[in-house]
Amino acid sequence: MSQILNGIPGSRHLLMGNEAIARGALEAGVSVVAGYPGTPSSEIVETLAKVSSKLNLYVEWSVNEKVAMEVAAAGSFAGLRSMAVMKQNGVNVGSDFLLHLALTGTRGGMVIVHCDDPGALSSANEGESRHFARMLEIPLLEPGDFQEAKNMIKWAFELSETVHNVVMVRSVTRLSHASGPVTLGELPEVEKNAYFNHNGFILDPLEGPVSCLPVPHHHERQQEKMKKAAAEFEVSQFNTYNGPPRPELMVITGSACHLYCKETINLLGLQGRVGLLKLGTTWPLPKQLIRTHLEKTDRFMIVEEVIPFLEENVKIIAAELASEIGPKTFFAKRDGTFPGTNEMNPDLVIAALAEILEIPYEPAPPAYRRRAQDLTQSGAPGRDLTFCAGCPHRASFWTLHNVLQLDGREGFVCGDIGCYSLAVLPTGFSTLKTLHSMGSGVGLASGFGKLGQFGMMQPVIATVGDSTFFHAVLPALINAVHHQSDITIVILDNSGTAMTGFQPHPGLPVDASGNAVPAIDIAAVCEATGATVRIRDPFDIDSTRETLLELLDISGLKVLVLKQKCALSPEKKAGKQFDVSVDEEICLGQNCGCNRLCTRIFKCPGLKWDGEGQVSGIDDVICVGCGVCASICPSGAIRRKEVA
Questions:
Q1: Is the confidence at residue 2, as pLDDT, over 90?
Q2: Are β-strands 274-278 and 240-242 bridged in parallel, bridged antiparallel, or unpaired?
Q3: pLDDT tens digit string along 37-48?
Q4: CA–CA distance, 51 with 44 (Å, rounded to integer)
Q5: Which of 6, 183, 194, 574 has the smallest number of Cβ neighbours within 10 A?
Q6: CA gyration radius for the chain?
Q7: b/e for 308-345, b at 16 or more Cβ within 10 A?
Q8: What is the pLDDT of residues 560-582, one digit of tens each?
Q9: So what's the pLDDT on residue 378?
């Protein structure tokens, strides 16, 4: 952190990509930063929040990405430089406002940093966000390494103020979460005076009201801004070419794929045969620059993640110029040279280049591959995706599953995105039956709950996290109450945005910078809508079960708040609540009638099975002392003793 704030200008430091982006924003003189936690973007806001008090920044974790864009836009309208940060799914959430913002334009520089996740390494999907730039007609930049991640952010603010519109900067997981050398620049001393000038002529974009009136000139002005951005892109330092004047093949790429292509060309020794055009300004494409390089050769390989966005746009320019520069051959995604899903990597680029240029290449000796395969098959045991030891969600879904079985009406649970998404798998007893976007579990349940007139008698439950409650559930909750939908909402309140690193949300008494703020009471909000509300501890299995069975017999909308802190939270790490042990005299393993219920079904990682002794046990290293397993053991062999 000291490097971000106190590094000497001109000094070199090893920075994570997200840290480099944060430093670039500081060097640009950013004043307002808002975002919603989402891997791989979260560290940008976290980094800036930690230095906010020293640099007079306003940094917040907004309730969702749409609000984050609106907060950042307010800063821009008041003449300050602002930034909104999110992952790829968040751009979808914020796109409603972004559609209008692209028309009205901005005043102080405003940048949206969206970190896409090719390969869905930490996401429900690998959907990307570049198409929003084309659809909404706003500039798009993509840094190709860690130094560019810093420098490009600074330039993005300048570009935003040149064209008076929001600028998108796209990172990807391998850039956001990897680290590389970055040379620091100056931190400016910026006089930050916010003033929203709204007294000018109604159609004056810089001094009048900022209003998305339905007048044709809005769109015309927006397209003029794009032409201005395209002219800037023609001479941008972030578009580079390395290679011979007349290469046999030219590789066109950008973002982290630039590093894969650079590595491949060096590894195969193709510097004299292959050219590398790295584009940092990917929408709108600089047409004259593209033309210059299209004229250098007849064969091109386009490397990108994930959809063929760059490929299609380059091909459009090539088609428009075909009568002047002749036909070109492209190797990319649409012809099957590269897969249409997942991350790119050097191996894929090497295989493609070797085939196109007919270069014999053996990626690894056969003996090495055989040995690796042997180790894979006989090495570490396979591990299921599972909740952490002591996770309150395991206890919650244990009860949910059992209650629905006891109820006997074939009820089901609608879920959404979060740690609790794992409940669609055996680790959560296969309890979730729908799984879509944040908040969609309640929206779907609201719909299911109105199907009684068509004969549906199944109880409907929706599960949602506490951060997701504020992010996307409130509209669906109000919809369900207003339309008297017969559902039960179970709010899994583990006191933080646990999946992305315990960032605070409006239900907690602290903000992104650690300042004390009023906490919004989730149960009180639900009660205010007219819902029947109960609060329980999911670790209290008996009470939770009885309460849930009671709620299923009440008509209308019911809410059960299951409140228990995440097992990985700082408070929980401080010590155990219970010492847990197994009485081996009582535990008969597979012969006690439960058939190893604890280790075969409940499957907390803190439980272990001794195959030799045919008895269950506690792994003292992994066990966090929640004591729930003592509640589920039918023979009473698992004992818990409260820690003094």
A1: no
A2: antiparallel
A3: 999 999 999 999
A4: 12
A5: 574
A6: 28
A7: bbbbebbbebbeebeeeeeebebbbbeeebbeeeebbb
A8: 999 999 988 877 776 788 999 99
A9: 66
Residue 99 DSSP class: H
Using CA atoms, how far apart are residues 65 and 622, in angstroms rounded to an integer?
36
Q: What whole-number distance in Å separates Cα of residue 81 and Cα of residue 66?
A: 18
Q: Which helix (H) or strand (E) holds 618?
A: strand 615-618
Specify whether the CB–CB gap between 128 and 306 falls below 8 A.
Answer: yes
Percent of the chain at pLDDT > 90 equals: 77
- Rounded CA-CA distance 477/558 in Å is 10
Domain 2-234 has CATH 3.40.50.970: yes
Q: What gap in Å lies between CA 133 and CA 95, rounded to an integer?
A: 11
Pick one of 2.60.40.3090, 3.40.50.970, 3.40.630.30, 3.40.50.360 as the CATH number of 392-572.
3.40.50.970
Q: What is the 3-state secondary structure of 178-240? A: CEEEEECCCCCCCCCCCCCCCCCCCCCCCCCCCCCCCCHHHHHHHHHHHHHHHHHHHCCCCCE
Structure confidence at residue 223 (pLDDT): 93
Q: What are the Cα distances from residue 145, in Å, to 43, 114, 139, 389, 407?
A: 17, 16, 19, 38, 56
pLDDT per residue as tens digits for the range 427-486: 999 999 999 999 999 999 999 999 999 999 999 999 999 999 999 999 999 999 999 999
- The hierarchical CATH code for the domain 575-642 is 3.30.70.20
Helical spans, DSSP H, in 469-568: 474-482, 522-528, 541-552
For the stretch 268-313, pLDDT in tens is: 999 999 999 999 999 999 999 999 999 999 999 999 999 999 999 9
* Nearest CA-CA partner of 503 in 194, 44, 169, 153: 44
Identical fold, 2-234 and 240-356: yes
In the numeric block, the tokens 């480099």 are attached to 20
Phi, psi of 311 (to 5 degrees): -55, -50
Report the candidate in 616, 566, 608 with the shortest Cα–Cα distance to residue 589.
616
In tens, the pLDDT along 62-103 reads: 999 999 999 999 999 999 999 999 999 999 999 999 999 999
* Fold type of domain 240-356: Rossmann fold (3.40.50)
**Residue ranges covered by each domain of the chain:** 2-234, 240-356, 392-572, 575-642
